[in-house]
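INTERNAL TRANSFER SHEET
From: sequence group
To: structure group
Subject: DUF541 domain-containing protein

Please process the attached sequence and return the structure record in the designated field. Keep the field labels unchanged so the import script can parse them.
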Amino acid sequence: MTPEAHPAYGTADAPLLAVRGEAEFRTEAEIARIGVTVTARGRDRRATLDDLNRRNTAALDVLKSYGDAVPHLTTGTLGVAPELSERGRGERVRSHQGIVRIDAEVTDFAVLGELTARLAELELTELDGPAWSLRPDSPAHAEARRRAVADALRRAREYADALGTSLAALTELADTGADRPRDVSAFGRAARRADAAESAGPFDLQPAQLWVSAQVTARFTLVPPRL
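Return from structure group:
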């Protein structure tokens, strides 16, 4: 097949126009992901494990008490390790340290501030997050794709108009990828002991505005222009 007849190049009777369509807009987050890390440390291994289990259960009880507002819970890390003495000969265990990491998704932001405050007050418990995101089936993704296609069509029509002609047919539409929604906000890391002098009030956590984007490439044939 000669280059003049190849679909990627078009022909004099069916000139080819290739354009890119892009869309980007801001939308409010739909999911807040938080990490909860509980630890325990002691000389006795069994006692350390018991403390770790008790604190892990306490954190899970708080999270589960919010029902459907926390639809997903995952134990991300579980570890128990001996700490050896730096002095003396042999493997002398000085203490044991245990850690459990829980990852949670929160979809009801009305309870997020109260939930994080309650977790932060638990014994030897540390929080990080929230990391804001959209649901996989969020309408925002479809809207970004629609806007990208509309942008490609607008550009193609502008090029055709500049040539004094019009679009004849769409020959190809390709999804060239969508960026993951971008978020620059987080409340960082918080740690609070159960024996604090005063209880913390609910944190004032505002949902992030996320940038959502999509890109497509489109190929059209043109009505042959008079040049």
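Handover comment: The mean pLDDT is 84. The chain has two domains: 16-27+139-181+212-222, 31-133.
Transfer complete.
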